[in-house]
Amino acid sequence: SFSTDEVIRKRLLIDGDGAGDDRRINLLVKSFIKWCNSGSQEEGYFQYQRMLSTLSQCEFSMGKTLLVYDMNLREMENYEKIYKDIENSIAAAHEKISECKKQILQAKRIRKNRQEYDALAKVIQHHPDRHETLK
Question: What does each C-alpha distance from 18 to 30, 65, 86, 97, 116 come to in angstroms?
């Protein structure tokens, strides 16, 4: 009394990534049993070729899975490198921001001093210079 969803879920759990490996292994076992019980040499050779074909499919599938696994590892390393580069860029940006804040404070102080100097210069210009005062 299994529902279709349960059957599919169970097959996916058995099959792993859904590459059909369980079906290939079952086919290989059946071919081996037929090969063992083959009556004629022609039938035995046919079952033997069928087993070789199934084995090569399994090897191909395994090789493909290993390549995907290696690719995923390299991608993870690449993403970690990108993550570190981004962290370093953020840290450098924070340093630059704090340096710019210091420069802004210094520029404000210089501007304030210049404004005070200009105000004093205007006041001084209203008074006669030393030469005139001594006369």
Answer: 21, 11, 36, 52, 80
The token pair at 1 is 């009394």
Residue with tokens 């199934």: 54
Place of tokens 């030393």: 130
Residue 64 reports pLDDT greater than 70:
yes
The phi, psi pair for 17, rounded to 5°, reads -90, 10
How many C-beta atoms surround the C-beta of residue 34 within 10 A?
15
Select from 103, 100, 81 the least CA-distant residue to 92: 100
Query: Domain extents for the chain?
Result: 2-96
CA atoms within 13 A on the CB side of 125: 6
Taking the C-alpha atoms of residue 54 and residue 23, their distance in angstroms, rounded to an integer, is 10
Type of residue found at 71: M
Give per-residue pLDDT as tens, 4-24: 777 776 666 665 555 566 777
**Cα separation of 111 and 101, whole Å?**
15
pTM metric for this prediction? 0.52
